[in-house]
Design a protein that fits this description.
Length: about 425
């Protein structure tokens, strides 16, 4: 079983799907969950058209549906399988191969994108283990996404420069114009992407060290790290967020901004949150805005994070005294999560200030940050239109000054440039 033997000893349900042994040169495996995807081959074509990296590539497509799927879904899946098989038969190279998995009867209790992604990623791990390549890269993609032609070579270049990289996210852009969708869909895509980038940038501004995008179609992880962290989860939504926030705190997490993935802005109802459902709600409402967290929420976090080092080697009474004097939203939330006792335990297991800070943010992690934002937005600072929020962030960080009449698309372009590393300060 190779380096992943311990992992698979715990995966009682796992059974390899493919009998053909992988190439010794296998370096990259792309995993694509596909549910009710009539245009699956568009994504396959996008990957096929990419410049080839030095190692070999496999693409594993997991066409799936729950055991109680409707007749319509089963028909679409069967049609997708047939179209994909026909297309793949004419698009195969020794160094680049597509493989189809068909799972029409996933247990209804667990069926969803998490289990589908896990099924494909476990298969990818097994294939890397067969050739004993713990450094192999498992890439997560989606069946409605496209990518730039340098998708693989940009990943390869980053890993050559940073050979200790454990995982990474890949820069993305939703399409914001075109003829494929109604105009309001593209408008919703602009606003939703602004929300994602605003959230990421303001968390970084606040001092949170693990602020990265967690988009299912835009990340990768080394096979050995995937195995060591217990693999993908079976969550029906947010599987990418939960998985990546096990990887990010390990360190050596990279951002690859030299290429681009293009997730679809299409309407979806399969999961309770994310791009598809946000666009659907936007389309169904009369609203012209998408709302997001108010800047005050992040300023509160920033004021708290600047005091973290002061908690090192401090007795519980001192920590409790400091927390009691924080603004009400912070004091209330920290009390609800028993921060004083948690910080005392962190102190007891930290031999230095840096070790304390590292342990602290593993406790006050992305999950607790999101819970704080949601709680504070519900009680103290209501959500505001995302354009207003982005404008406030850009003014606060000095990226715009007197330009008050920027369109939503212009604001998105600015924050995209910031996320790609450009210095555009006025």
């Amino acid at each position: 079983m190779g380096f992943a033997e311990h992992y698979f000893s715990k995966q009682k349900r796992f059974a390899p799907c493919f009998t053909e042994p992988p190439s010794d040169e296998l370096r990259y495996i792309v995993v694509i969950p596909a549910y009710c995807e009539p245009l699956l081959t568009d994504s396959l074509k996008s990957l096929w058209n990419c410049a080839r990296p030095k190692g070999h590539v496999e693409v594993i497509v997991v066409v799936n549906s729950p055991e109680d799927a409707s007749v319509e879904v089963r028909k679409i899946n069967a049609s997708s399988m047939e179209s994909a098989r026909d297309w793949i038969s004419d698009h195969t190279e020794v160094q680049f191969r597509f493989r189809l998995m068909y799972i029409p009867d996933m247990p209804a209790k667990d069926a969803g994108v998490g289990l589908a992604r896990k099924t494909g990623m476990d298969e990818a791990l097994h294939r890397f283990s067969m050739v004993d390549n713990p450094g192999g890269i498992i890439l997560s993609f989606d069946a409605d996404s496209l990518c730039a032609v340098n998708y693989f070579t940009a990943v390869e270049e980053t890993l050559e420069i940073r050979p200790k990289t454990r995982g990474f996210d890949i820069y993305f852009e939703h399409p914001v114009s075109g003829n494929e969708f109604p105009e309001k869909v593209y408008r919703g895509a602009v606003l939703y992407e602004m929300h994602l980038r605003y959230l990421n940038q303001f968390l970084r501004f606040s001092g949170f060290p693990f602020a990265y995008h967690t988009v299912g179609s835009c990340f990768g992880v080394r096979a050995s790290v995937y195995a060591a962290q217990g693999g993908m989860n079976r969550r029906k939504a947010g599987e990418d967020f939960y998985f990546l926030h096990k990887i990010i705190p390990l360190g050596e997490f990279a951002e690859i901004s030299g290429t681009c993935v293009f997730p679809s802005p299409r309407v979806s109802s399969r999961v309770p949150f994310g791009t598809g459902v946000t666009i659907r709600k936007f389309m169904e409402s009369d609203e012209e805005d998408i709302v997001t967290y108010a800047p005050e929420c992040f300023r509160l976090l920033q004021s708290f994070f600047t005091q973290i080092n002061g908690f090192y080697q401090r007795p519980p009474e001192t920590v409790e005294s400091v927390i009691s004097q924080l603004p009400q939203p912070l004091e209330s939330y920290l009390t609800s999560i028993h921060a004083v006792s948690a910080i005392s335990e962190i102190n007891a297991n930290s031999s230095s200030a840096s070790a304390f800070a590292n342990r602290f943010f593993r406790w006050f992690d992305a999950f607790r940050v999101v819970k704080f934002l949601n709680r504070t937005s519900s009680i103290y600072f209501p959500r505001i239109p995302v354009r207003n929020a982005v404008h406030s962030l850009l003014k606060l960080t000095g990226n715009i000054t007197a330009q008050e009449n920027l369109s939503d698309l212009e604001l998105l372009i600015i924050i995209r440039k910031i996320e790609k590393g450009y210095d555009i300060r006025a």
